[in-house]
Design goal:
globular; 75% helix; mainly alpha
Length: 416
């Protein structure tokens, strides 16, 4: 058995384990890369270490630490409360407001999981009080958070931008974000209508939920945090400041001014996701060196033709993402195969295939088997039958693998 085959089997094992166990596959992936590269391939250990994505690690660490500080000191929670008050009791506007709120929080840099975690508890509680169908609110919150996932300031957006830049497809961050947001918005509207959300505009809710004033008022530390986040966004967009280093600078400012508990913020960082992404990247780097990536692209090419690849790859990544981490496992494993996949197919548009992978992988994340969908289901009030909600959300997530395939085939199939 050749080294390429062994390394590819290791990647497939890592993907399967990510779907069926709670083991952090990033840890296993790095061990696989070390054993296969050094003891089977005769490589020096420094060759394996070179596959560790140092730039990506620093960027993720900086951005997630900054928004962990904003979460720990209550800034993001207060933004959520004030967003809710804008609905003014209209039941039909509430799911839309929570969609926009989750989208905004994810877009500015908190990421899709943080956006869902901050918005879902309040959204699902509001759904219980106002008699909004729980599945409607689940779909709106989940797709709002997923729609903001690929912002250049969010962890997933940073991961995708890094992977695409390595393929020579850099500089498309806002296009990628826009396509994903458009797909999520379309499916959110579809779900809203299918499950009866349009009827909610005929109803009003007059009992206003008023948390204690101190729980929603902005204090000095919150204004400073918002100013730092705004400064980071402006500096990255207009002055091309490195987002990772800019985030670390923001962290330093907030720490020096004592606006947040940096120890609690460090603990709140998504270390498991960072380890997962970096570990799988080390293994995929080994695949590129051993020829395993070429073998992987050959297998993918057998599933489709040049004309059908966008729909097929959207469906495959969506189906795998239902059970696995989209940003931590699926995209780091699939995206690097795009150039060789195009070569094996004898044609195709690399950007279109990349976007198909990204959108197909993200649309299904409202499934309760994914973190975002699970947060929404877990946040449902006691008046809701969570087993029924779980099943509905699962069916919705599974259907999104088909919807994603159709969207990618119809829309990206035009890019030739």
């Amino acid at each position: 058995m050749g080294l390429a085959t062994i390394s590819l089997i290791a990647l497939l094992v890592a993907i399967v384990l990510s779907c069926t166990t709670t083991i952090n596959v990033g840890l296993l992936a790095m061990v696989f890369a070390w054993i296969i590269g050094v003891y089977w391939g005769g490589m020096e250990i420094k060759v394996i270490r070179a596959g560790f994505p140092t730039d990506l690690f620093l960027t993720l660490a900086g951005v997630t630490l900054l928004f962990a500080q904003a979460q720990v000191n209550g800034t993001l929670e207060r933004l959520t409360h004030h967003g809710v008050n804008l609905c003014r009791g209209n039941a039909g506007l509430m799911p839309i407001m929570f969609f926009l709120l989750a989208l905004a929080i994810a877009t500015v840099g908190a990421g899709n999981i943080a956006g869902a975690a901050l918005v879902a508890p309040m959204a699902m509680a509001a759904a219980g009080r106002v008699k909004i169908p729980a599945i409607v609110m689940t779909i709106m919150v989940a797709h709002g958070a997923i729609g903001g996932a690929l912002s250049p300031f969010s962890p997933t957006g940073i991961i995708v931008a890094n992977l695409m830049a390595k393929m020579g497809l850099g500089g498309r961050e806002w296009q990628t974000y826009s396509f994903n947001l458009l797909a999520c918005a379309v499916m959110a509207v579809f779900g809203f209508l299918v499950f009866g959300g349009w009827r909610l505009f005929q109803r009003s809710y007059h009992e206003k939920y008023e948390p204690p004033a101190e729980a929603i008022s902005f204090e000095r530390r919150h204004w400073i945090t918002l100013a730092v986040i705004a400064a980071l966004v402006i500096s990255v967009i207009f002055f091309r400041v490195d987002v990772g280093m800019g985030a670390f600078a923001g962290v330093a400012v907030l720490t020096v001014l004592r606006t947040s508990d940096e120890v609690a913020a460090i603990r709140a960082m998504p270390w498991s996701v960072i380890l997962m992404v970096c570990g799988v990247t080390v293994l995929t780097s080994l695949l590129e060196k051993t020829g395993g990536m070429e073998l992987f692209s050959t297998l993918l090419a057998r599933l489709a033709t040049e004309r059908t690849i966008n729909g097929v790859i959207g469906f495959v990544t969506g189906l795998v993402s239902i059970y696995s981490s989209t940003s931590g496992v699926v995209l780091p494993a699939f995206l690097p195969a795009v150039p060789q996949l195009v070569e094996k197919l004898g044609g195709g548009e690399p950007l279109a295939i990349s976007w198909s992978m990204i959108i197909g992988g993200h649309l299904v994340d409202g499934s309760p088997l994914s973190t975002i969908g699970a947060i929404c289901v877990a946040s449902a009030p006691v008046s809701v039958d969570r087993r029924v909600l779980f099943n509905k959300a699962l069916y919705w997530g599974l259907s999104m693998s088909i919807a994603g395939a159709l969207i990618c085939q119809i829309f990206f199939g035009l890019l030739r």
